[in-house]
Amino acid sequence: FLDRETLKDIVSFINEKNIHLVCDEIYAATVFTKESSFVSIAEIIDQDIACNRNLIHIVYSLSKDMGFPGFRVGIIYSYNDQVVSCARK
Protein backbone atom coordinates (compact mmCIF):
# COMPACT_ATOMS: atom_id res chain seq x y z
CA PHE A 1 0.00 0.00 0.00
CA LEU A 2 1.10 3.59 -0.55
CA ASP A 3 1.40 5.83 2.47
CA ARG A 4 -0.50 9.09 2.95
CA GLU A 5 2.46 11.34 2.02
CA THR A 6 3.13 9.47 -1.22
CA LEU A 7 -0.53 9.73 -2.18
CA LYS A 8 -0.46 13.48 -1.50
CA ASP A 9 2.60 13.81 -3.74
CA ILE A 10 0.86 11.88 -6.52
CA VAL A 11 -2.25 14.07 -6.28
CA SER A 12 -0.10 17.22 -6.38
CA PHE A 13 1.75 15.88 -9.43
CA ILE A 14 -1.37 15.02 -11.42
CA ASN A 15 -2.86 18.42 -10.62
CA GLU A 16 0.32 20.20 -11.70
CA LYS A 17 0.51 18.21 -14.96
CA ASN A 18 -3.28 18.07 -15.47
CA ILE A 19 -3.29 14.31 -16.05
CA HIS A 20 -5.77 11.67 -14.94
CA LEU A 21 -5.07 9.19 -12.15
CA VAL A 22 -6.77 5.79 -12.12
CA CYS A 23 -6.38 4.16 -8.71
CA ASP A 24 -6.81 0.41 -8.69
CA GLU A 25 -7.91 -0.35 -5.13
CA ILE A 26 -8.92 -3.92 -5.92
CA TYR A 27 -7.15 -5.34 -2.85
CA ALA A 28 -8.17 -2.57 -0.44
CA ALA A 29 -9.86 -4.89 2.03
CA THR A 30 -7.23 -7.64 1.87
CA VAL A 31 -5.52 -7.44 5.25
CA PHE A 32 -2.99 -9.86 6.68
CA THR A 33 -2.28 -8.00 9.92
CA LYS A 34 -4.51 -6.68 12.68
CA GLU A 35 -3.68 -3.09 11.80
CA SER A 36 -4.33 -2.11 8.20
CA SER A 37 -2.13 0.58 6.69
CA PHE A 38 -4.30 1.04 3.60
CA VAL A 39 -5.17 4.65 2.76
CA SER A 40 -7.61 5.24 -0.08
CA ILE A 41 -6.98 8.07 -2.49
CA ALA A 42 -10.57 9.10 -1.64
CA GLU A 43 -9.41 9.92 1.91
CA ILE A 44 -6.63 12.11 0.56
CA ILE A 45 -8.84 14.16 -1.75
CA ASP A 46 -11.60 14.51 0.85
CA GLN A 47 -9.46 15.60 3.79
CA ASP A 48 -5.89 16.47 3.06
CA ILE A 49 -5.36 18.28 -0.21
CA ALA A 50 -7.08 20.61 -2.64
CA CYS A 51 -7.24 19.13 -6.13
CA ASN A 52 -9.18 18.81 -9.34
CA ARG A 53 -11.33 15.80 -8.46
CA ASN A 54 -12.33 15.35 -12.11
CA LEU A 55 -8.84 13.92 -12.68
CA ILE A 56 -9.06 11.12 -10.09
CA HIS A 57 -10.87 7.82 -10.65
CA ILE A 58 -11.03 4.78 -8.36
CA VAL A 59 -11.70 1.24 -9.55
CA TYR A 60 -12.58 -1.73 -7.36
CA SER A 61 -13.88 -5.25 -7.81
CA LEU A 62 -15.46 -7.82 -5.53
CA SER A 63 -14.09 -10.86 -7.33
CA LYS A 64 -10.50 -10.71 -6.06
CA ASP A 65 -10.75 -8.84 -2.78
CA MET A 66 -13.70 -10.84 -1.47
CA GLY A 67 -12.63 -14.16 -2.96
CA PHE A 68 -15.51 -14.51 -5.40
CA PRO A 69 -13.84 -15.90 -8.53
CA GLY A 70 -16.14 -15.68 -11.49
CA PHE A 71 -18.32 -13.08 -9.78
CA ARG A 72 -17.73 -10.08 -12.03
CA VAL A 73 -18.77 -6.96 -10.16
CA GLY A 74 -16.70 -3.85 -10.68
CA ILE A 75 -17.00 -0.34 -9.36
CA ILE A 76 -15.79 2.92 -10.83
CA TYR A 77 -15.89 5.90 -8.49
CA SER A 78 -15.29 9.24 -10.17
CA TYR A 79 -16.34 12.87 -9.89
CA ASN A 80 -15.94 13.19 -13.65
CA ASP A 81 -19.38 12.94 -15.27
CA GLN A 82 -17.90 11.95 -18.66
CA VAL A 83 -16.04 8.98 -17.15
CA VAL A 84 -19.12 7.82 -15.24
CA SER A 85 -21.33 8.18 -18.31
CA CYS A 86 -18.90 6.15 -20.42
CA ALA A 87 -18.64 3.45 -17.74
CA ARG A 88 -22.41 3.00 -17.69
CA LYS A 89 -22.47 1.93 -21.33
TrEMBL record:
Q: Which UniProt keywords apply?
A: Lyase, Pyridoxal phosphate, S-adenosyl-L-methionine
Q: Does the keyword Transmembrane helix apply?
A: no
The cofactor(s) it depends on are: pyridoxal 5'-phosphate
Instruction: State any single GO MF term.
Output: pyridoxal phosphate binding
Q: Which family does it belong to?
A: Belongs to the class-I pyridoxal-phosphate-dependent aminotransferase family.
Q: What is this protein called?
A: 1-aminocyclopropane-1-carboxylate synthase
Question: Residue limits of the Aminotransferase class I/classII large domain?
Answer: 2-89
Q: Which organism is it from?
A: Citrus clementina x Citrus reticulata
Classification via InterPro entries: Aminotransferase_I/II_large, Ethylene_sulfur-biosynth, NHTrfase_class1_PyrdxlP-BS, PyrdxlP-dep_Trfase, PyrdxlP-dep_Trfase_major
Organism phylogeny: Eukaryota, Viridiplantae, Streptophyta, Embryophyta, Tracheophyta
Quick check: keyword Magnesium in the entry? no
